[in-house]
Amino acid sequence: MKKIGIFFAEGFEEIEALTVVDICRRCDLDIEMVSAYGEAQVLGSHGILVKMDKTFAEADFASYDMLVLPGGGKGTQGLEACAPLMEKIDEFYAAGKYIAAICAAPSIFGHRGILKGRKACSYPAFESHLEGATLTAGPVEVDGNVITSRGMGTSIDFALAIAEIFCGKQAADDMAAKIVYRK
Known about the structure:
globular; alpha/beta; 7-stranded mixed sheet; Rossmann fold; two-stranded antiparallel sheet; 6 helices; 34% helix
């Protein structure tokens, strides 16, 4: 079974994060919610407190096939300020393992030089941070081992793209039908 780590910092965008968790779990993917700063619970941008599966210190990065960064302005700043997480993002990217970010969080990839020569998208206010990328207005971009998406309204597209990578197009299409979602 493929395993995904999704990382939370205070101020994360709840729908972006939890949609990925929900759809991946519905697709029988093993996804762990990980606190970037060691808290047992992390407060989202709209006051929703979410219990984590692991703290950063407990995360087994060797077991992950993908790292996911949800957006939210404050949450993205918190993730980017977590130096050990940024080291893992760089390691995964260099190793050809999947990394994914939505909304403001693709800016992290831009700042790290990961998007040079790649198609990418983000929340419109953060597009200037996608350094070296070919910008698109698509709901989600999958370019090699890097996945980006635009925001809360594209959360289902983002989650289904992740599911498609690990479960195949038919499984992702079946899940879209099950949740009554039209692409």
